[in-house]
């Protein structure tokens, strides 16, 4: 379906938005928000409605919701003052007010059918040697309970597509992301499956197809199989023995930015910064009371954890991978087995998380130097000079000592300095 309004064309089949004839790069969450508002344009859509429809009822802060609406307005050429496309109704919600024209487009032959059909109805599935098999949270994985917290990336049926991707490596079951070590063992049989084959992944499901007439058919069938069990976005991970998952699909932090060894400091949910009270309550009730091994990954306003995994390493890996793939940004590890892995600042207001290797404000050469120093133990801090100099410190005895050391180092090289980060948290200037 194509929705036309103002100078914008939104295509739900292709998951594409064009404005003024130009294709826009839009995050999946923003696309789904716009689509939901359009489809419900005859009424006011409340914030709770959005949380239920877009975030699956998970905890979402007011600032996150506001940022998403701002991104929606920017995408469609709206603004907060005129509101000629999306209107805010105080204390009620939002309504799509622009005039909309709908156009139904014929489905291309190669288009993927998003509604999964039962496996029993697939002719290929009746032929064991060429069956497309579903490998989801099965194969004995019931003994490994995974708890996903606070924000799962919800996707509409139309989002269960994959964009053209390029091969970057050869398939190795030991490096497949998002799945448990036990599932990696199951996928070790993938290379022996007959061609043409494909593997699709989601944060909560896996689909494998083999014996297809061509690669497009294999991809479509793998996506279909994945969608039977997955409630999240399925993407093609491998075609044949080529891994085609793009770097953008899983924006992991670099290893040097992660601190995964637990400190002798218990995590106190109420002290988690830039986090809602409901999110802190979920951490307290679901993460803190769960059995080890467990790990909690974190980024601005959102946490994602894995509990009762087979090992600490698996818990850490899967927490980071699931957080990063669902939020499309690198996440850090905040806690392992109920203990902090990084210190939480107490003397400054935290505004977001900070990963040296991906910090856009820092020049690349400085990033490498800061990331190397930041591999040291807590406390760590970073000061920035007015002339553009950067001054990291590590292994300080306390938060105050780290701040003083960073500022003093900066002052010796620059006339005016300010604190930029404490550990892995960006702090406010005030």
Q: Which structural class matches the secondary elements?
A: alpha+beta
The average pLDDT value, as a whole number, equals 81
Largest beta-sheet details? 6 strands, antiparallel
- Give the oligomeric state of the chains in this entry, treating copies of one chain as homo and distinct chains as hetero: single chain
Arrangement of strands in the largest sheet: 8-11-10-12-13-9
Uncertain segments of ≥5 residues (pLDDT<50)? 105-167
User: Whole-number radius of gyration?
Assistant: 23 Å
Number of strands: 22
Discrete helix count: 9
Q: Please tell me what the overall shape is.
A: globular
Specify the helix fraction band. Answer: 10-25%
Distance between the termini: 49 Å
- Tell me the β content: 15-25%
User: How many domain units?
Assistant: 4
In short:
The chain is α+β, with helices and mostly antiparallel strands and 430 residues long.
Describe the protein.
The protein has 430 residues and is of the alpha+beta class. It folds into four domains: 2-103, Winged helix-like DNA-binding domain superfamily/Winged helix DNA-binding domain (Arc Repressor Mutant, subunit A, Orthogonal Bundle); 123-247, no CATH class; 255-340, no CATH class; 350-427, no CATH class. Helices cover 25% and strands 20% of the residues. It contains nine helices and 22 strands. It has helices at 28-39, 47-54, 62-76, 181-187, 215-229, 277-287, 312-327, 364-373, 399-411; strands at residues 2-5, 8-11, 16-19, 22-24, 86-89, 93-96, 101-103, 133-134, 169-170, 198-202, 205-209, 235-239, 242-243, 295-299, 302-306, 332-336, 339-340, 350-353, 381-385, 390-393, 417-422, 425-427. A six-stranded antiparallel beta sheet has the order 8-11-10-12-13-9. Strands 4-3-2-1-7 form a five-stranded antiparallel beta sheet, covered by helices on one side. The longest helix is centred in the last third of the chain and has 16 residues, at 312-327. The model is unreliable at 105-167 (pLDDT under 50).
